[in-house]
Amino acid sequence: MHTQDVTAGAKSGKADRAQREPMLGVKDIARRLLVDVRTVHRMKDDGRLPQPIKLGRMVRWCADEFEAWIAAGCPRSRNASRKERE
Is 57:20 a contact under the CB 8 Å cutoff? Predict the structure, then answer.
């Protein structure tokens, strides 16, 4: 029984973090980057933003991770974009 609890805890790590840290939504990201909401979705899909946390249909980013991403010079979060892989 303890093993199941540990496994469940590992899987819910992002969800736990989402409950503890301030989260940014798509509109928040768009305002901070001075772009349209659709651009944020494209950037997310292309791997040009940090990996978001999905909560049901909602997409959220940890504020601290997003700020660290900006401080690091906005590096790609994945090696290749969706279009590059096709």
Answer: no
Cα–Cα distance measured from residue 64 to residue 68, given in angstroms and rounded to the nearest whole number: 6
Domain 2-76 annotated CATH 3.30.420:
no
Q: Is 47 helix (H, G, I), strand (E, B) or coil?
A: coil
The DSSP H or E segment spanning 43 is: helix 37-45
For the chain, domain boundaries: 2-76
Residues 27 and 35: beta-carbon distance below 8 Å: no
- The distance from CA 58 to its chain's CA centroid, rounded to whole angstroms, is 11
Predicted confidence pLDDT, tens digits, the chain (86 residues): 444 444 344 445 666 655 677 999 999 999 999 999 999 999 999 999 999 999 899 999 999 999 999 999 999 987 544 554 44
Q: Which two tokens stand for residue 2?
A: 């303890």
